[in-house]
C-alpha cells in the first residue's frame, strides 16, 4: 500500500499563491499543479481554524460535532465557554484508518488539545495547545506523553515560536522563529513517517496563517512559502508517496474591520453593562500595549510566571473584551443578540427568536462599506449546518465578504474601520492538490468542499466511508477504489474500549465529559 502524507497549510489560498507561482517564485508548487490534480476548496462557515480542521478530518460540518467557533455560546444558561479538542463529538479519518488496521500519525494538528489516543501518535498544535496568554505550552501536548521528550531532544521541537509574533512591525526574530518551526514540522512528520513505517501522516503548518494575517503578501509570507515550496519539491520526488496539500480555509487582503457586537449595540440588539474593561480601555490600558512593553523589557516569561492567569485575562484587548468575558460587559436580560467573530450570531431565547431573527437578518444584509455589502449572504443556522448539534449552534450565520474581518470585541467603541492588526482575513476559499501513485493527474477540478477530503483519503487507503461523512469521494483515482460505505464510529469507539465505565473515565480525563 502506498503511504500518504497530508500537508495542512493553514490559511492557504490560490489568491495569495497564484501571483508568486506565475512569477516563478514557487516552482515546485507550479510543477505539482502541472503534473497532478488541484482545486480550490470551500470551507464550512465560519472560515476559521476552529472548526474547519475538524471539518476536514471528520468529513462533517459543525452541526455534526458541536463546535461552531472558538467559543460555545449558551445564552439560555448565560454562559460563554472557550472550546478545546475535547469538545468535538466525532471520530476522525485516522480513527477509521486504525479501525481498518492501518497506522497513522497526526503532527501539530489544531483542534486536538488535549491530545487523545490513536493507535500511533498525536502531536497537538496551536492555537489551542497553550497554557496562558503570554506563555507557550511546555508539556502534555503529545500522545503518547513520552513522545514530547523525544521531539524536543531530537528536533528542539516546540508548539509555539519564541519570541511570539504579535504585530506587523516584528519582521526579525519573530518571523525567523516561525520559519524555524515550519522547517521542524516537516522534519518531524517525514522522520516519523519513515522511521515508524506509518501508513498515513498528517502535518499542519498553523503559524503559516499567522504570517498571512500580519503580512499578507509581503516578504515574510513569501519567505515561508519558499520554504514550503522547497519541501513540496522534495516530497513530490518520492515515488512511493501520495502527497496531498490542503488548507482549512483561505485568506485575502483585509479591507474592512466590522465590530459586530458594537453594531448590535448601536442598532438596539444589545444593551451594555459597565465593566472594568471599559474603564481600562478608555485610559488606553490594553493587552497589546502591555505585551509590547513586556517584550521590550524582556519580561514576558517573568510576567507569565508571577501574574495569575485570572489577572492576565482582566486586561482587555484593544478592540474590547472577547470570549467568555463578553457577557460581563452586557446586560443579558435586556440583550437580544450576541455574536462570535467571523460568522456565528446567537439570539437570546428570552425573546421571540423568530421575530428577532427576521429583523436581524434583514438589517445585516444592509450593512455596507465603500466596496459594497459586507456579507455575501446571511443564513439561518439550520440552512448551513446539519447533524445532531444544529440546535446548539447559532441562529444566524453571516458569510463575510473576502476582505472583511468580523471582529467580536465588546467595548472598543468602533463599528467599522480599515484594517487594524490583520493585513489579511480568512475566507472560505482554500486549496487542494494531490499527486502520487494512487492519483490520476486531472489538472484543475471545479471547486470542491473541504468535506470531500476525508472520504477521498479513506478511499485512497481502501477504507469504506462512514455514512455520517457529508463529503464525496473525489474522481481523482487511477483506478476506481470501490470502497463502499460503513457504519460510523462513536468517539467512545474511537477511544478503543468496550467497557462503559472505562470509556467514561477516559472521556473525563480527556475533557470530553464533566
Automatic annotation (TrEMBL):
Q: Which Pfam families match?
A: Phosphodiest (PF01663)
- PANTHER family the record matches: BIS(5'-ADENOSYL)-TRIPHOSPHATASE, ECTONUCLEOTIDE PYROPHOSPHATASE/PHOSPHODIESTERASE
Task: Give the protein name, as stated in the record.
Answer: Nucleotide pyrophosphatase
Matching entries from InterPro entries are given as: Alkaline_phosphatase_core_sf, Phosphodiest/P_Trfase
Which molecular function term from Gene Ontology is one that the record holds?
hydrolase activity
Gene3D superfamilies named in the record = Alkaline Phosphatase, subunit A
Q: Which domain of life is it from?
A: Archaea
